[in-house]
């Protein structure tokens, strides 16, 4: 059975609206940062930190990350809406691990979710159901 994690934009997040392009831009920034780290370390850290290609089937609601090694298969990312604490709809990114996903996919998905949620100051509901708040709360 597939598992899902959610990155929710809440009050205090940097943006209140997101698109698929915003998610892809965040992944490109992650890839760029890891490539710079690799340059400093003198090895191809980018390939180890982001072992995926970004693939799209032409749908405006989701795309998937396809693994480039046998240790990684797929991670699906899509945008949608969910209810916030106040009951109003809030934009979110749903990250899905299909049935054929590996343990490596789950580890990378957790890492990517944390990176995106932290950079957007969002609320992250992880695959195990726990919630991490990166947004400033009062």
Written account of the structure:
The structure is a single chain. The protein starts with a strand and ends in a 5-residue tail after the last strand. It is globular. Strand 2 and strand 3 (62-67) form a beta hairpin. The model has no long low-confidence stretch (mean pLDDT 89). Strands 2-3-4-5-1-6-7 form a 7-stranded antiparallel sheet, with helices on one face. It has 3 helices and 7 strands. The chain has one domain: TATA-Binding Protein (2-Layer Sandwich). Helix 1 packs across helix 3. With 138 residues, the chain is an alpha+beta fold. This is DUF1885 family protein.
Largest sheet: 7 strands, antiparallel
- Tally of helical segments: 3
In CATH, the homologous superfamily goes by the name Rbstp2229 like protein
Structural class: alpha+beta
The Rg value, from CA coordinates, equals 15 Å
**What is the global morphology?**
globular
The proportion of residues in beta strands is: 25-35%
**E-strand count:** 7
Separation of the first and last Cα atoms: 37 Å
Stretches where pLDDT falls below 50 for ≥5 residues? none
CATH class: Alpha Beta
Average of per-residue pLDDT values = 89
Instruction: Please give the share of residues in helix.
Output: 25-40%
* CATH architectural type: 2-Layer Sandwich
Looking across the biggest beta sheet, what order are the strands in? 2-3-4-5-1-6-7
CATH topology: TATA-Binding Protein
Task: Quickly count the domains.
Answer: 1
Order of helices and strands: EHHEEEEHEE
Pfam family, one: DUF1885
InterPro entries: DUF1885, Rbstp2229-like_sf
Organism: Paenibacillus nanensis
Protein name: DUF1885 family protein
């Amino acid at each position: 059975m597939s598992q899902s994690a959610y990155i929710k934009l809440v009050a205090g997040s940097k943006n209140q609206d997101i698109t698929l392009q915003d998610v892809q831009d965040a992944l490109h920034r992650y890839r760029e940062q890891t490539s710079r780290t690799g340059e400093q370390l003198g090895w191809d850290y980018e390939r180890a930190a982001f072992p995926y290609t970004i693939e799209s089937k032409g749908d405006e609601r989701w795309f998937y990350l396809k693994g480039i090694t046998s240790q990684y298969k797929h991670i699906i990312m899509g945008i949608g809406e969910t209810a916030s604490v106040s009951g109003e709809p809030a934009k979110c990114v749903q990250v899905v691990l299909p049935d054929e996903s590996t343990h490596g996919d789950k580890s990378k998905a957790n890492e990517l979710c944390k990176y995106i949620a932290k950079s957007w100051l969002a609320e992250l509901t992880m695959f195990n159901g726990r919630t991490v708040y990166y947004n400033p709360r009062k």
